[in-house]
Amino acid sequence: MGLLHAFYERLSSSEGLSAMAIMSAAALLGSYVYLLACPAHNDIYKYPLVNGRKPWSLFVSKQKARFVADARGIIEEGLKTAGKAFRLQTDDGIQVVLAGEYAEGLKSNPDLNFGKISAEDFHAHIPGFEPFRQGSLNDEIFHDAVRENLTHALSGLNLPLSHEASVALEHHWTDNSEWHQVQLKNSMLNIISQLSSRVFLGEELCRNPDWLRVTMSYTVDAITAGQDLRVWPMALRSLVHWFIPSCRKLREDLAECQKLVNPVIQKRREEKKNRVLQGLEPKKYLDAMEWMEQAAKGRSYDPSISQVMMAMAANFSGSDALTQVLFDLCDQPKLVQDMREEIISVMTENQWNKSTIYKLRLMDSVLKESQRIKPAAVALVRRYALKDTVLPDGVLMPKGSKLMVSASSSWDESIYPEPERFDGYRFLRMREKGDEAGAQFVSTSYSALGFGHGKQACPGRFFAANELKIALSHILLKYDFKLPADTAPKSSTFGLFYQADEKAGLMIKRREAEIEL
Questions:
Q1: End-to-end distance of the chain based on CA atoms, in angstroms?
Q2: 458 labelled binding-site residue
Q3: Helix locations, 377-497, DSSP H
Q4: Is the dihedral of CA 177, 183, 188, 193 positive or negative?
């Protein structure tokens, strides 16, 4: 009865909720409990249930808490005891977990949708969470802007990104040539936010302290608010979000973002309109605000919401990846030196032209190895069944079911020898042996799911790879770094999220770069 008691206390302490509302909510909770106790019969119940409630228990609060605390351990346990497919009690209902090899059979299935599950996970129908709605629900404008504009413009963005990396590092890491400590995750979030904003918003807002602050705040607050909502039954979330502090904070963040972006968009539209009236060619900008306008082709969309969504995706994943790879490199002096020599060789020949990024093959291998050991989540290729769908093993997934593919293939010794050991040369050797395409950082497979897999893989991964390589090039040539004494960074899970150590520091000092980037 613990969950019911907590449920009643939350409702009764919320301002403005009448007794009638409490009674209605209790009735909805009763329906929720009934559905838990009496599940519908369908094929997926052939799969064993892992982390499920006890037969005599009506509630799953302990199971949800365990999932949030140790999703990786539970999934690994399920793969060992229940086989390659099982049901799992998560913090947001029961979902199907599949072993890595299932990814090949799912990757191109149009009836299994990633956008829908992302929208549901982050409550896209609730005020404050609109960026998840615009970016997830088959948003053609967003995907056109990324695939047709951002990806094609990558080589032209290298120089602006490099310049912004210099500015951001000088500000956040300074030119201090004495050893000093930074909180790595936070500094990477600031630096990646500034680089991404240069591409998404252009020079007008990329260094605006209010924009950088509020988009970073939204990124963190969205995760907190999303988790707070999952405590409540689905049917009540549209009501209780009004009274949850983290959800209120999220709405405030979004409103501030809109106040910053909308005037810039309006100014550009007026400028273009006036130039057309004068018979002049409208000015074009090399940034995502411009690309979204082009991709819209007159269709209605909210440009400020789009900017928040792109910033959030880039800031969270990019800062986490860069944090982890720097931790991975701290005890690899030879690898760091080899990477520096590669950067010097490539940049001396090419500067930041189209082929530069591709030629940083060792760096590409290091990034992929870091992602292999610690992907962004312990299960990826997440899908929502838009209609009844038969899985490769013949089991029917009924409409509305949710599934995920475990990232465990990344740690499979039969695929990657000594999988627990960080080997920055691993994927470089694979490319040298002939696996040129499959061993690249942006490539996906059932054993490399860091960017998803198939047609619904991350469309922004090519930009992410460029951004990380440019930032890492500046860091390696301009700074020495090491772990503080008695520090051993430890990644952690929070539900499915797999995060680099958020608290560990890094000792850094400015070094004399061999070449100017």
A1: 62
A2: yes
A3: 426-432, 461-478
A4: negative
For residue 105, the surrounding DSSP H or E stretch is: helix 103-106
Burial 13-22, CB ≥16 within 10 A → b, else e: eeeebeeeee
pLDDT score for 8: 36
- Relative orientation angle of helices 2-13 and 19-37, to the nearest 10 degrees: 150
How many CB atoms sit inside 10 A of residue 378's CB? 24
Which residue, 29, 5, 15, is CA-closest to 235?
29
Mean pLDDT, 10 residues at a time, the chain of 517 residues: 40 40 42 40 80 83 93 96 94 93 90 88 92 69 83 89 97 97 96 95 90 92 92 91 97 95 91 91 88 84 88 92 98 98 91 88 98 96 93 89 95 96 98 92 95 90 96 98 95 94 97 95
Backbone angles phi, psi at 125, to 5 degrees: -85, -5
* Tokens 């995920």 found at: 404
pLDDT for 278 equals 92
Backbone φ and ψ for 171, nearest 5 degrees, come out as -75, -45
Helix %, strand %, coil % of the chain (to 5): 55, 10, 30
Inter-residue contact 505 to 181 (CB < 8 Å): yes
Residue type, 153: A
Side chain identity at residue 185, one-letter code: K
Q: How far apart are CA 429 and CA 439, in angstroms?
A: 9
E strand or H helix that includes residue 86: strand 85-90
Closest CA to 199 of 144, 254, 170, 162: 162
Cα atoms in the 13 Å half-sphere on the side-chain side of 385: 18
pLDDT of 473 reads: 98
How far apart are the C-alpha atoms of 111 and 126, rounded to whole Å? 25
Q: State the Rg of the chain over Cα.
A: 24
Q: Got the DSSP string for 442-465?
A: T--BTTB-BTB-GGGS-TTHHHHH
pLDDT of residue 3: 40
Q: Pull the structure tokens for residue 182.
A: 């930074």
Cα separation values, 44 from 63, 142, 389, 402, Å: 20, 34, 11, 11
pLDDT at position 138: 53
